[in-house]
Amino acid sequence: MESGRKEQPMTYPGDNKGFINYLYDRYRDLSMKEICIVFEGQITHQVMKVLTGLMEEQLEGMNEKRVLRRVYHVMVESLQNINRHAETFEDEGGPCPSRGLVLVTRNENHYQITTGNIIGNSNIEEISMFLGRLNNMEPDALDELYRKQMRDGVMSAKGGAGLGFIDIRRKTGNPLDYDFLPVDGDSSFFIFTATIPRKQS
Amino acid sequence: MNTLRIEPADDSPQVILDKENNIFEISGKSLPENVVEFYRPVMDWLQEYRKDPNPKTGLTLKLIYFNTASSKMILDILMVLEEMAEAGHEVVVRWMSLKSDEDMQEAGKEYEEMVDVPFEHLTYEM
């Protein structure tokens, strides 16, 4: 985050300012502490592998193995979400599919994985109801929901099993943080943050 | 019956399904771009094998990592084994986890609760 650029207005990614402004707008009052990874662009399967590989490399040799495996897992799931579900939008260069932003930060207490991507406004209600419901569930109920979805869920055409958010919620133990910033009449910028405590749960 | 052998990649596991030598093993990382496509030959092979299995089938699952989409495929595989067990065949799952990977050990216990197949939980060190 560039602390020198105060009061930068939020801009639509179509005008080349990029998604980073959305995050800056939302987080400028928060101390970001140490940034491990920041990336903005098309999240292909290859990019997902490279970014998670970078994280793995950074984490090698550190002794909080369980925490770090969870950071890796949450990154995989969040990036695959963007790869499958980000709304394609148009800019001057043509269509931008699977476009998103990922930010991994840490401080002494936790790791945070934040992602951002454009979604259609028609999806807001479903996503926010689902995430709100997950946040209100107890660990046993989350396990039960995960198992039920694994058993009865149908693989989507995009290759998802509808399990990512549930597993992120149950593995992190923390409420999921999310927001929808309006872009235009049809779409919004979906910001999602998972927090992984560094103390053993 | 032909042996199914899939070489490991950085995002998909090694698979050995060998009826003749009685070796059944999936090991490594599983986060392929398309899980359904990756696991289709595995499921097809098992569905065929199920009709005329060996007297004892031990499936070794030695996974370092799997994503949530793969978790559903693993359950599908275990459910084929469950059908075999229900048909009276002897079946066992050897769930192998790194000693330091408690989440992987817990995942094995979760599967054990979900399917009616005996599990052996084993840990190893790198």
Protein model, in words:
- The complex is a heterodimer of chains A (201) and B (126).
- By secondary structure, chain A is an alpha+beta fold.
- Chain A has 6 helices and 7 strands; from the N terminus they run αβααββββαααββ.
- In chain A, 39% of the residues lie in helices and 25% in strands.
- In chain A, the strands form 2 sheets. In chain A, strands 1-4-5-7-6 form a 5-stranded antiparallel beta sheet, with helices on both faces. A two-stranded antiparallel ribbon of chain A has the order 2-3.
- Chain A is globular and about 45 Å long.
- The relative contact order of chain B is 0.16.
- Chain B has a single domain, classed as Rossmann fold, CATH 3.40.50.
- In chain B, strands 1-2-3-4-5-6 form a 6-stranded mixed beta sheet, with helices on one face.
- Chain B has 126 residues and is an alpha/beta fold.
- Chain B has helices at 35-49, 68-86, 102-114; strands spanning 4-6, 14-18, 23-30, 56-66, 90-98, 119-124.
- The A-B interface holds A 45, 49, 53, 65-66, 69-70, 72-73, 76-77, 80, 143, 147, 150-151, 153, 155, 159-161, 163-164, 166-167, 171 and B 10-11, 31, 33-36, 65, 67-69, 71-72, 75, 100-103, 110, 114.
SSE arrangement:
The complex is a heterodimer of chains A (201) and B (126).
Chain A: H1 20-27, E1 34-42, H2 45-59, H3 65-85, E2 89-91, E3 94-96, E4 99-106, E5 110-120, H4 124-135, H5 139-152, H6 164-172, E6 177-182, E7 187-197
Antiparallel strand pairs in A: 1-4, 2-3, 4-5, 5-7, 6-7
Helix pairs in contact in A: 2-3, 3-6, 5-6
Chain B: E1 4-6, E2 14-18, E3 23-30, H1 35-49, E4 56-66, H2 68-86, E5 90-98, H3 102-114, E6 119-124
Helix pairs in contact in B: 1-2
